[in-house]
Amino acid sequence: MGGGSQQTVPGEPDSGKAKGVYTWEEVQSHCSRNDQWLVIDRKVYNITQWAKRHPGGFQVISYYAGEDATEAFTAFHPDPKFVQKFLKPLLIGELATTEPSQDRDKNAAIVQDFETLRAQVEKRGLFRAQPLFFFLHLSHILLLEALGWLTVWMWGTGWIQTLVCSVFLATAQAQAGWLQHDFGHLSVFKKSSWNHLAHKFVIGHLKGASSNWWNHRHFRHHAKPNIFIKDPDINTLHLFVLGQTQPEEYGIKKIKHMPYNRQHHYFFLVGPPLIIPVFFNIHVMQTMVSRRDWVDLAWFISFYLRFFSCYLPLYGLVGSLVLISIVRFLESHWFVWVTQMNHIPMDIDHEKHRDWVTMQLQSTCNIEQSFFNDWFSGHLNFQIEHHLFPMMPRHNYHLVAPQVRALCEKHGIPYQEKTLWRGFADIVTSLKTSGDLWLDAYLHK
What we know:
The protein is of the alpha/beta class. The two termini are 47 Å apart. It holds the Pfam family Cyt-b5.
């Protein structure tokens, strides 16, 4: 039943209107920038015009053009019934009854078992947050900020006091980073609007960044992790080559923007020290100004007004700028090592159109649980569970982990878990391996 044959689709609100019946081949042909269809629960939607107005950004929804987006849709939308009112006008038909529910080589058994697991998780209430947990987390961030200021207010602005203050403030910044991550994923409040407001406060006023910048960047990472072009977290601006495919491609094409065989050395100079102080700060400003995001800019300014009102009387302008630079430098190291240990050592490749579970498990790994690891990483040591259930409150990751591990064992999917130090070391090891692959291809292929 190809060719978009017209018939009435039973059960639709506007069922008097003729709808098409399509094959996967037809759906997959609509995946260009100006022609985009996708499938959710076997219903076919034309999102070509809607993609430009998608609250999560044009790119993240476009990543699923021409394929089944059911699992991603479920993972990212806390209230599917609410979203349906936006989907109804976009409905153009459904898959033919002869077509499978999954496209390409996606494993139907894994998809079904994960759907069952998700239903069990919802029944257990694991998507419900504990308000006290997040209140205490916010309180300890504010306490750290107060301790930083009190240190130099009471004991002076010598180098030792300044270093102690910087550690307090960098710790507060790192922990605020994990907290804004919670609000950004809509995992704290039942109402999305409350999460959005809290997100702007934490990432804007407490951290000096932009919620919209973070949303449009981070959800692309979750939608297609470790996939070239689509995941912004592996766009290294030609400073590094990652995985096994990219090094060989660069080597064969004789691309040498950097001495990639030494990247495991210069990573320490350009990765951890510069991501937040240089790259993120510049990118945040560019994004807010280019998109005329004045609300986020106001929150951003409020952070610096608060910071300088606290420290200008103590340090003066130059000293305050030095202090914030030290804080960003320390925070950047914390952020890079924690966020990259779960992804850089994993599979990094071009789009393979895998099912949700397989895609997430091949691109993520866990770090052993402990009180320190949970706190230090913002529970992102449970990266697998977080990627499978991005809206789940982080204090529940450990409760679902045994079921996720069992699902992986049933289907022969590797579930990787390591020590914190092994995770750090694997970043460097994987960079060296990729660099060696590049050098071999560059010299011999």
